[in-house]
Amino acid sequence: MAILIFGKKEATTNFGICFIYILSSSSSTSYHYNQKQYIVADLQKLAPKSMDQNQSHLIVVEDYDNGLSTTSITPVPHNCLPTIIEIKPYKKKLYHIIKRYLWIAPFMVGCLIPSFCLLIYVTKLFNDNLHPIIPLISDLGAKPPVAGYIAQIFDSIAILNFITVWARYKQVKFYIEKYFNNVGIGISQRLKRNNRYFAIFGCGYSLGVMILGNFRNTEQPIEHGVGFVVMTCILGEIFFQANICNKLYSFKRIESQPVTIRFCFWLIIIILFMSGVFITISVLKLDSISLWLDNNQRMNWQPHQPGYIWFTMGTFLEWFHVNCCSLYFFSISHRMHLFKQWHQVK
């Protein structure tokens, strides 16, 4: 921990910092004089304007190597220096602890996605007809009472994804500032641009999830469709995150190659395309496109009716695509969990 004495006569900054003592890690009885500029700079923000600079003060400030938090600002006489060893560090600040566990946010998203799929399908098995064997997720999620739970789950996913995007954006920004300042302006600028686009598309995905979950397909199909279109921003989120991870590893061997993230990106694109093709064919097999907009027809599609097989294959791929997103969030969670410098992220 860092021990600082304030006094106007010996002032070396606007707030009168005159001594910085760093507790030695090798011996609990010896102290080393070490003027760390980054600690001094941050301490200036901590010092209250009302502090009497004619009087000496003892301050325990954050040690950036260990993440220790500010403990006290106490007036003391100069002869207290021999007793500094009796001071014990306080617990870390709450936000330090929170930042260490931000990896839980994407992990929870990865768990919630298959959980809500399981919830609505189990509900179908107990309360619905057998066919269609695999309905649209939007149709199953629109039925009460499960519709209320689905809306809350989707809101939770949106909020947790927003936290994930914010935390990952800050983490990548830290990498750029610490490791890429001297690499080259072009590389640094590309990383910053990709990080910015990642944040934009990530926020778009959260917005789409909230719209999709709160406007039911059976009641507000237009708004629901808009939510689905906006929700495809996850492709941009994954794409730019893959680019970021690739550059971090290629130039500085930070983290690892984005194999899982790339796999998820291409798998989701292929599955979405195939699902769209199959569902389009099933709609064209109907006597009229208006039948597709009929909730009763769509939610009770029977095997003997035209387009049933195509519809089933399309909805199966839809369910598969949604659950593939969990792999991406688990990968991001793992990368955030391995990051041990959260206390340095501002």
UniProtKB/TrEMBL annotation:
InterPro entries: CWH43_N, DRAM/TMEM150_Autophagy_Mod. Belongs to the DRAM/TMEM150 family. The chain crosses the membrane at residues 101-126, 146-169, 197-215, 221-242, 263-284, 308-330. It holds the Pfam family Frag1. The gene is DRAM2_1. It is a multi-pass membrane protein. The lineage of its organism: Eukaryota, Metazoa, Ecdysozoa, Arthropoda, Chelicerata. GO terms for cellular component: endomembrane system. The keyword Glycoprotein does not apply. Keywords: Membrane, Transmembrane, Transmembrane helix. Residues 108-332 form the CWH43-like N-terminal domain. It is found in: Endomembrane system. This is Photoreceptor cell maintenance. The keyword Plastid does not apply.
